[in-house]
């Protein structure tokens, strides 16, 4: 029986070989000089030329001879073989490396999840990106947090900005520091793989310069992605509300997450019903 390492090495070799054979010289704008090919696909020499590595290196990779390519070499191979985003991620996973630089382009609109957010009424829900920007939200979420998100500038529709700098929110969370600490740990995890994101850099600079609390907690370097948890709120109209939340990430866009709030107990559900009822009766 092969070891796991051997299995991965052979899978990496097979993957590179099949990706090479599916390409034609015209796909990568290589000149063939009119020569007829006996077998389909690119030659190893052509892949080596496109990736800027030696032919011997490509041969050893395709023969599963124990190489562990660096992120730079993997990036070059991915470009040479015209890999899709999913194939590129698979290549890096096989090599036990993390991608650097280029990432999947951000989706310019909420996509199907945007409609799902509204379909989840009366559950408060919102769609976030990797910066914790609020992409879209439903009425139940607006009523719960008591913020007119439509009236805010786009750069301020951000979970961390609202929590740290929006003054009416200072007493909204009973465990304010814990909520901020968790948000920072989540934001730092996203920042590590997106250090070239100018909007994230601007957000962190603004929060650090305007909030000593944020600056202190940011310097603790905590890292954690929170997929679920509980928040205890003090709502000005409905009183104490305990909320359980789940953050769900779609398979086709890891930069988005759907956050859904649910009442943690009967008293909290009654409070949410009160908020919904009082708002519905307001002209």
Automatic annotation (TrEMBL):
It comes from the Bacteria. GO terms for molecular function: DNA binding. Residues 41-88 form the HTH cro/C1-type domain. Transmembrane segments: none annotated. InterPro entries: Cro/C1-type_HTH, Lambda_DNA-bd_dom_sf, MLTR_LBD. This is Transcriptional regulator. The lineage of its organism: Bacteria, Bacillati, Actinomycetota, Actinomycetes, Jiangellales.
